[in-house]
Amino acid sequence: MVLITEPIDPACVAWLRERTDIVEASVGTSEFQTSLANAQAMVVRTYTIVGQELLVSAPKLKVIGRAGVGVDNIDLVACADRGIRVVHTPDANSTAVAEYVFASLLAATRAIPTVIHAPRDRAEWTDLRRDAIARRELGEMTLGLVGLGRVGRRVARIARAFGMRTLYTDLLDLPEPDREGAEPASIDRVLAECDVVSLHVDDRPGNRHLINDRALQRIKPDAILINTSRGFVVDAQSLAAFLRTNKAARAILDVHDPEPICPDSPLLGLPNAILTPHVAAATAAAHARMSWVVRDVWRVLTGEEPHHPAPTVHR
C-alpha cells in the first residue's frame, strides 16, 4: 500500500492505483495514522516532515517519494539506517522556477499601466505614459547567481537572451559549456557588482543565513534580491533592516522560514519586500513532472533501481 500525504497530479494517482492500493491522507488525520502502520511506500511533497517519530510508526516502509527537488523535510540518515530508499524529481520544476525569477524581475522593473477608461484629456494620457518609464532595461543590468545548478543554469540562459551580463558563484568548478555564458566570481564580488542577485543553493547546513548582515553590507543599495531556494538561506531580521534603510532595494522571496510566514515576520508590510507563498514551481506541467515520482516509487517496490535516488548522506 502507498500512502500519499499531499496532493499530486490525478493522472499519477490513477497510474499508481492500477498497480497497488492507495490511501490519500494528510498528516495528523486518524486515517493517516492508521494507514502508516501498513504503508510500504509514501509519497510526500513539501510539508510532510519525515523524521524519527514518523518512521517508528511505519515499520513496513520501503521507499519514500518526494514529489519535488529538495529532500530537507526527510531525515535521510534515519531512512538509510532503516533501509528505506528515498527518491525525488530533481529537474521537474527547473523551468517553472526560472520563469518565476524573470516574471517577478520584470514585474519589479517595469511598471505597466492598464487603461481601464478613456482619459479625460491628452494630459492624463501623457501622465500614464510618463509614469511607466522604467529606470533601466534588463540588458543594462548585471545578474548574480548564487548557485549554478539546474535552475541557475536556466536562469543564466534566459538572462543571456535579455542581454544581461551574468556572474555566478558555485561550490563546483564548472566547465565553460555548462555556464550558459555566466562568468565565475567569488560570492563577495557577486554581491558587490550585481544589480540582481538570485539565490539557487541547496539545503546544506552551511547555507543557513548565507544572506546575513555581512552579505547585505556588500550588496548594492538598489539591488534586487530574489530567493527561490530555501527560506533559511536569508536572515529575515537582517534583510528587513537592510530594506528599511535602502528604500530603492527590493527583495522578492518565494520561500520562507518557517512556512507559512509567521505573523511577526519583520518582512511583512515592508513596501519593498515582495513575498509570495512558495509558488515558483506552480505550473501544471511542473506539478505533473514532480508527481511522476510515483514511477520511481513503483520501481523500488518491484525490486528495480530507481532513476532518481536522493543524494547520499555522509555521516
List keywords for this structure.
315 residues; alpha/beta; seven-stranded parallel beta sheet; five-stranded parallel beta sheet; 12 strands; 14% strand; globular
Structural features, described:
The protein is α/β, with parallel strands linked by helices. It contains twelve helices and twelve strands. The strands form two sheets. Strands 8-7-6-9-10-11-12 form a seven-stranded parallel β-sheet, sandwiched between helices. Strands 2-1-3-4-5 form a five-stranded parallel β-sheet, with helices on both faces. α5 crosses α7. β1, α1 and β2 form a beta-alpha-beta unit.
Structural class: alpha/beta
Strand order of the largest sheet: 8-7-6-9-10-11-12
**Topology order in helix (H) and strand (E) letters:** EHEHEHEHEHHEHEEHEHEHEEHH
CA-CA gap between termini: 31 Å
Low-confidence stretches: none
Rounded mean pLDDT is 96
Helical proportion? 25-40%
Quickly count the helices.
12
Shape verdict: globular
Total beta strands: 12
Main sheet characteristics: 7 strands, parallel
Hey, roughly how much beta strand do the residues contain? 5-15%
From the alpha-carbon coordinates, what is the Rg to the nearest angstrom? 22 Å
Describe the protein's topology.
Layout: E1 2-4, H1 10-17, E2 22-24, H2 30-36, E3 41-44, H3 52-56, E4 63-66, H4 76-81, E5 85-87, H5 94-109, H6 122-131, E6 142-146, H7 150-161, E7 165-169, E8 183-184, H8 187-193, E9 196-199, H9 213-218, E10 224-227, H10 236-245, E11 250-253, E12 273-275, H11 284-291, H12 293-301
Parallel strand pairs: 1-2, 1-3, 3-4, 4-5, 6-7, 6-9, 7-8, 9-10, 10-11, 11-12
Helix pairs in contact: 5-7
